Amino acid sequence: MRNLCFLLLFLSACSALTTEVNTFELTEGSITGPSMIESGAGTSIEVVNNGEFGHTFVITDPDGRVISTTQILEPGADITIDVDLAQGSYLVSCRLITQSPDGTINDHFQLGMYKTITAEG
What is the pLDDT along the chain (121 residues), one digit of tens a residue? Predict the structure, then answer.
């Protein structure tokens, strides 16, 4: 019985150390991924650029302050970032502005590359 209690205690301690990875995919005009993620230290976010062009991934709080950002991710690139989010709402977005060969200005945010997420604990 004592061994069983120790095993259960050990397993619960191990599960507290595991972090869930939240995956967000970037493509032209959209960011897809979970609407709700865990709050607190050690929240892992994987960002995958499945688009044809470079993109960034920026997390901002409701006041517009940048919490975390990536460098420009080239097509096919991915990165995992660890963030410490308090409970609440955040905006994830691509903040690049590019120019097409024909001279058209493309603001990735205005083209729909944003998503509101909620961090809960």
Answer: 554 444 444 444 444 444 568 999 999 999 999 999 999 988 999 999 999 999 999 999 999 999 999 999 999 999 999 999 999 999 999 999 999 999 999 999 999 999 999 999 8
Query: What is the token pair recorded at 76?
Result: 């096919």
16: left (phi over 0), alpha (psi -120 to 50) or beta: alpha
pTM of the model: 0.81
Classify residue 18 by burial, with Cβ atoms within 10 Å: 0-12, 13-18, 19+: exposed
Comparing CA positions, the residue from 82, 92, 16 lying closest to residue 44 is 82
